[in-house]
TrEMBL record:
Protein known as: TraC-like domain-containing protein
Top-level division of the source organism's lineage: Bacteria
Residue intervals of the TraC-like domain: 22-148
InterPro entries xref list: TraC-like_dom
Amino acid sequence: MTAQVKGTTQNFIEIENIRDDIVIMRDGSAALVIETSAVNFGLLSEREQDALIYSFAAFINSLSFPIQILIHSRKMDISNYLNLIADQIKKQEIGLLKIQTQKYYEFIQNIVQDNEVLEKRFFIVVPFSVYELGIKGGVSGSKATKLPYPIDYIVKRAKTALLPKRDHVIRQISRLGLRGQQLSTEQLIELHYALFNKDTSEGEKIIDSEQYTRPIITGQ
């Protein structure tokens, strides 16, 4: 009888570890992630839209390395905000302010019941290729089973290559009126957990990542 092969979701995820604000893949490649602010393009005048398009084109043309643009949408939990408003209503004396606050509370409640309130986050991913480690013809992606070098060496090489690229990206997007900030180790773990667990990640917090050799998530 053929033995059953037991597998886990981890076998399909290419991430080996997240360390020093860098995502390390199983094949030795790596990446850092920059979260950016956003611009409501539809609210800009035609002249402002044209200027933004030209500035974005200049940003793309300034790149000598690949990037990935990621947009992450998730349903917002505004229960804490509603609880805050409810507490304020209880504290207020009877009068016009209390009535208006109660109407605002009901308005927000109706919006949430009839529509999903989504939070959109915007990211730029800057990759570090396994070939930048000097590996030729190595196994890449999910086929890799172990790191080609010690992880400390990979992190050091990756940071040397990625940090100047990060600075260039942040400097260039500032010309678009955008702010950029590299995600920390804890923020990266939370982001990847949310990406892989869209239905269950709401309201969950990460345990202090420095206490563990692997990312761990805990529910409230």
